Amino acid sequence: xxxxxxxxxxxxxxxxxxxxxPASLKSAMKDMSTTLKTITSQAADATKNQSSAxxxxxFVQAAEASKAFFPSSANDPTSKTKYTEMMDxxxxxxxxxxxxxxxxxxxxxxxxxxxxxxxKKDGHSQFRQ
Length: 129
Fold this sequence. Notes:
80% helix
């Protein structure tokens, strides 16, 4: 009986994890964009820092998931490496953003948000067709 319960928990956990993972680069980027817009809209309100920190964590998860996919324009090893490096930078900034909100450092959070918006523009200009 205990084994059956453990198997059910494992199965439900795997199902929940699979539902959290984007199915494509487009869906991962959409998750990142939507989350970034929400964070940006509430970044100036220090009473929402806890919520913003949670959202920043969600942003990082979506960015990490996006590394499982490559844009169609990244069709050679050099461009794939560049894409991976850009996403690593976005992930690092996302983690810094989460820490800034946790530390109630809204000035730093705003600067990081501006950098992430610029990263998005740069990435789209380089990889979006």
